[in-house]
Amino acid sequence: MNFRLxxxxxxxxxxxxxxxxxxxxxxxPVGTPTGGGGPTNPGGGIxxxxxxxxxxxxxxxxxxxxxxxxxxxxxxxxLGVTEISGGGGSASSVGASIxxxxxxxxxIFGKGMRGNLQISIxxxxxxxISNRQAITATDDTPGVxxxxxxxxxxxxxxRTVILRDSNENITTFTGGLExx
Length: 180
Known about the structure:
- This protein is mainly beta.
- It has one helix at 10-19, and strands spanning 75-82, 96-98, 103-111, 118-121, 127-136, 142-150, 157-164, 170-179.
- It has 2 domains: 8-37, no CATH class; 75-179, Immunoglobulins (Immunoglobulin-like, Sandwich), CATH 2.60.40.10.
- 6% of the residues lie in helices and 34% in strands.
């Protein structure tokens, strides 16, 4: 006869023990009291959760929680591609594409965008980034613009533009720059 050793979680073992008629004492097989519920729930019944509403930097009474005072102020919202020699340009939430063997200006707008952001592009190292600078959209949304020079042998496909500020906050425009 062959036997196989099976490891069972303690909670499942306790349930199996009770279901088979065992566990008649005041303590379950895993060592937790039964029927009590602990100091915050002495009756042992199910308790409805309490909703606590707080804002950034506020305090609460009787509840031990922490709410960060600020969240990252960095969010890439729209991306566009335009000719290097032309002025202006537009961006959209679906991104844009660049042909292999060409150089284009990439525009990214959104909360916290500045010219001093560290910019990288996912995938093979076949795109060179240069001429990074701050820009502003016609609706006053801050942005960053840079030149992307794509190798003629670049791997086609969607790339993610990664932007990092000096506080190590990161935002991405996932799959927003397509190499074709």
